């Protein structure tokens, strides 16, 4: 949806796989159901877009909403930046304890997650494929590091 570090990408991927109706993002809490639906529709059709394209589509959509939503979205973006910084720090800390195999896999996963020319669908597919190709112990090492 927005530029995300790997941990967030994986969490969102899991969310997409396991949940039918995602809760509305914080900037749409309290918004009319029709507005939330419109936003979900936008996201549902954005699988073929790259992250910068999705960001642009979301920004364009938000620009047409109420002042309340616009200002909440601005706050949301700032909050998200902070969380990304925190996630990067957590990632760096986890990386320090990884086995060489997990480090190698992590570098490949991060390259996919950070690739701005991949669409959301490609990203999710390539990440699942890579995770699926890892030996069980390496995958467990990476997954365990993501549980907070
Ligand atoms: C991004 O993905 C494309 C398509 O898989 C690939 O050709 C390109 O080399 C990747 N770029 C980086 C920086 O990894």
UniProtKB/TrEMBL annotation:
Comp. bias intervals (Basic and acidic residues): 72-85
Region named Disordered: 72-93
One Pfam family of this chain: ANIS5_cation-bd
InterPro entries, A to Z: ANIS5_cation-bd, SXP/RAL-2_related
Domain spans labelled SXP/RAL-2 family protein Ani s 5-like cation-binding: 37-139
Keyword annotations: Signal
UniProt entry tagged with the keyword Signal: yes
Keyword Cell cycle tagged: no
Domain of life, source organism: Eukaryota
UniProt signal peptide: 1-21
Protein's name according to its UniProt entry: SXP/RAL-2 family protein Ani s 5-like cation-binding domain-containing protein
